[in-house]
Amino acid sequence: MYLISIRPRFAFQIFKGVKKFELRKWIGVPVPEGAVMVVYVSGHVKAIMGEFRVGRVYSGTAEQVWRDIHMHPSPGVGRDDWPYIRGARRALAFEVVEARLYPRSVQLWEIRRIIPGWMPPLSYKVLRPCDPIYELIIKPLRRLNA
User: pTM of the entire structure?
Assistant: First the structure.
């Protein structure tokens, strides 16, 4: 399981089923197909809102990844996404599968009341079952959604 920060516009596109791929610069953390990505919506929203399962994962230069995802019909990725990976030596594209909103979002201020000083990832990070954010926030949200 992973925790990923996504800008509001792109997160809402994912949850509406419009955006089919999420692009990232390689940060040295591999993500396998089938992994669960818990979505922290950054910007003015600042909340954990839902999750998606990772389908195919494309990696390579930014240009290779861009070409690979545009071989799919309606990838939901447009010119606004390109600057995010442009120039990266290595980039990733996660296929978004089974995106779902949690029954309620949990705001950053609520998280920090439970876990003082908690910071969302700048990109994405591994989320272990023993991690307090998983045990105290995400696990109960996922149980409500089951």
Answer: 0.93
